[in-house]
């Protein structure tokens, strides 16, 4: 900028001061912000600034006289404030109030004389720093939020407002900067955004898993039909390989559904110490010879309310991650403990199962995404990225919480915190049951199953399975079509309604089942869903309603259909015996 441009800029600034605020001989003057910073994400005044100055002019530029009431106010305020001198090399800090020392943890002698960049660190946004630097170079006010670091290395989000201060003739004297620690707000916003992102991913994942389960059901079902008709052992090997791949796909969708918190759980009171003890051999074989497994279990812990099968799967996934984090070997520690109450006086309401390793640890950016599905730092083919995602979804669905502590070079600790069971009595394993007497294979007519399924391919597989088992099968593509079929004149007895839960149309499978039971109370009900979730939790339902998860195998379908029919035929609503004597097809479980 040449002298002419400088005089013109000074004249323009002079005009702004005279026109907007007045000059005054002994008083400071300034240019009001007038809402110019209304786009700032946070304002200490609760809204866009209108009256505070974005430029100031003073008549006494020195900092020696500090005896007036305004200086005392600056030292008393809890708002951190500094002045920098752009006329000195590197624009150093020449004044910092006591609140700034409280904010940063630095003493006065370590602040004055240094450029503000000493607060910056590895994660500070360089674009925001450049925006601040450009505004200072252009002598204009700016408001930014930066990730800064305190003297002890603690990061904090700093909302910074910077504005120029001129002398009476228009020469730039200082830059004034006020600060505000907005870490709590930024953390809350980040947690909210993360929760929204994970919820959206969960919904997408659940929808994909539902459709994928339908496809897997068609693939595995037709492979079963093909295997039964192949005499060539060489060809059957190919079918077996394809079936194994379908099984792996089914396990993958179960992990996806666990992440999406749509797994059908069967929680019951569980003794964590006993569960880990019984599972120790599996964990020992999983970690291998290079890793030392250490188990520290606290005795006499109250039981937790959890699905034990899914908890074992979650524990196994965490231990596998711990093993993989120590390629050179180390120690994995599995422990149980009671979680103290917040005040330390009330009885504990949770129990903790933790897994700690001595591995490489995770940097903050990895830790932040550790529970996202398909996010993994393992090499190609060494992990799906669903382990911790499944664990997080399962723990949350179990009304618990998952905590992860990790740092590079310091290992990782994963804590699964689970709620206590309302009843402290742990159910004992059921003893051997007496075998039912053989059923009469001679029947007047086969039992009738009404299949309601909107997917034609899935419907075809289910129909063929049931027909091979000897059932008479009717089909409907929607709930409305099924009700119309029931109302058809001359429609005979239907023994079982086998319906998908999620279907297009005016009602889902749950509502359909209720409508059918209103018309024909003696009909047994078996529902199925690709979510593997009992979606009828909030819906009153008869005890004979059960849910079969997709993809199901022929023997699973056979067992569940037979069980549903047996429950349905055990008596009508008044306890009367079933109206027919036949018991349906015989088949192996």
TrEMBL record:
Task: Name one molecular function that GO assigns to this entry.
Answer: phosphorelay sensor kinase activity
What is the top EC class of this enzyme, as a single word?
Answer: transferase
Tell whether Phosphoprotein is among the UniProt keywords: yes
Stretches assigned to the PAC domain: 140-194
The region called Disordered is annotated at 1-53, 561-589
Q: Please name the SUPFAM superfamilies in this protein's record.
A: ATPase domain of HSP90 chaperone/DNA topoisomerase II/histidine kinase, CheY-like, Homodimeric domain of signal transducing histidine kinase, PYP-like sensor domain (PAS domain)
Q: Which reaction does it catalyse?
A: ATP + protein L-histidine = ADP + protein N-phospho-L-histidine
Keyword set includes Phosphoprotein: yes
Superkingdom to which the source organism belongs: Bacteria
Q: Where is the composition biased (Basic and acidic residues)?
A: 1-19
Q: Which residues carry this modification: 4-aspartylphosphate?
A: 500
Record-linked InterPro entries:
CheY-like_superfamily, HATPase_C_sf, HATPase_dom, His_kinase_dom, HisK_dim/P_dom, HisK_dim/P_sf, PAC, PAS
Cite a single Pfam family from the UniProt record. Answer: Response_reg
The enzyme's E.C. designation: 2.7.13.3
Domain spans labelled Histidine kinase: 207-422
Domain Response regulatory positions: 448-565
**PAS domain location, by residue?**
66-115
Alphabetically sorted, this entry's keywords are:
Phosphoprotein
PANTHER family in the cross-refs: SENSOR HISTIDINE KINASE, TWO-COMPONENT SENSOR PPRA
Could you identify this protein by its name? histidine kinase
């Amino acid at each position: 900028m040449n002298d002419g441009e400088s005089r013109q800029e000074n004249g323009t600034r002079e005009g702004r001061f005279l026109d907007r605020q007045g000059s005054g001989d002994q008083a400071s003057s300034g240019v009001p912000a007038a809402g110019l910073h209304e786009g700032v994400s946070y304002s200490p005044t609760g809204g866009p600034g209108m009256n505070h100055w974005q430029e100031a002019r003073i008549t006494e530029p020195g900092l020696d006289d500090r005896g007036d009431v305004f200086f005392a106010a600056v030292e008393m305020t809890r708002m951190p404030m500094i002045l920098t001198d752009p006329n000195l090399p590197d624009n150093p800090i020449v004044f910092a109030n006591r609140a700034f020392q409280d904010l940063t943890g630095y003493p006065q002698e370590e602040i004055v004389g240094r450029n503000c960049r000493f607060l910056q660190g590895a994660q500070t946004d360089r674009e925001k720093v450049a925006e601040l630097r450009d505004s200072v170079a252009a002598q204009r006010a700016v408001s930014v939020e930066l990730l800064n670091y305190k003297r002890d290395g603690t990061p904090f989000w700093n909302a910074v407002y910077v504005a120029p201060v001129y002398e009476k003739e228009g020469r730039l004297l200082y830059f004034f900067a006020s600060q505000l620690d907005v870490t709590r707000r930024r953390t809350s916003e980040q947690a909210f955004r993360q929760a929204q992102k994970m919820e959206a991913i969960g919904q997408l994942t659940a929808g994909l898993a539902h459709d994928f389960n339908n496809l897997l059901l068609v693939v595995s079902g037709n492979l079963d039909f093909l295997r039964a008709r192949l005499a060539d052992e060489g060809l059957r090997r190919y079918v077996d390989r394809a079936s194994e791949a379908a099984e792996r796909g089914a396990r993958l969708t179960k992990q996806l559904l666990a992440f999406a918190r749509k797994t059908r759980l069967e929680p019951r009171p569980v003794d964590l110490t006993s569960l880990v003890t019984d599972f120790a051999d599996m964990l020992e074989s999983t970690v291998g010879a290079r890793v030392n497994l250490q188990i520290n279990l606290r005795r006499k812990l109250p039981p937790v309310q959890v699905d034990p099968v899914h908890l074992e799967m979650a524990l196994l996934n965490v231990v596998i991650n711990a093993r993989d984090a120590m390629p050179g070997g180390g120690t994995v520690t599995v422990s149980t403990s009671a979680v103290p109450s917040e005040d330390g006086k009330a009885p504990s309401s949770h129990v903790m199962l933790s897994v700690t390793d001595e591995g490489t640890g995770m940097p903050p950016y990895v830790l932040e995404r550790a529970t996202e599905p398909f996010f993994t730092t393992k090499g190609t083919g060494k992990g799906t990225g669903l382990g911790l995602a499944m664990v997080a979804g399962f723990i949350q669905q179990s009304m618990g919480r998952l905590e992860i502590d990790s740092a590079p070079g310091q290992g990782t600790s994963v804590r699964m915190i689970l709620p206590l069971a309302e009843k402290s009595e742990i159910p004992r394993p059921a003893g051997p049951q007496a075998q039912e007497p053989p059923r009469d294979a001679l029947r007047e007519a086969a039992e009738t199953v009404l299949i309601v399924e909107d997917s034609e391919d899935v419907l075809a597989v289910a129909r063929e399975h049931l027909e091979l088992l000897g059932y008479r099968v009717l089909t409907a593509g929607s709930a409305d079509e099924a009700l119309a079929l029931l109302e058809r004149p001359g429609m005979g007895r239907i023994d079982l309604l086998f319906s998908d839960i999620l279907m297009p149309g005016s009602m889902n499978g749950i509502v359909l089942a209720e409508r059918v039971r209103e018309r024909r109370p003696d009909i047994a009900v078996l529902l199925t869903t690709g979510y593997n979730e009992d979606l009828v939790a909030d819906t009153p339902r008869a005890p004979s309603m059960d849910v079969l998860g997709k993809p199901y195998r022929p023997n699973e379908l056979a067992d569940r259909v037979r069980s549903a029919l047996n429950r349905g035929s055990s008596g009508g609503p008044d306890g009367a015996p079933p109206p027919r004597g036949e018991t349906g097809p015989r088949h192996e479980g």
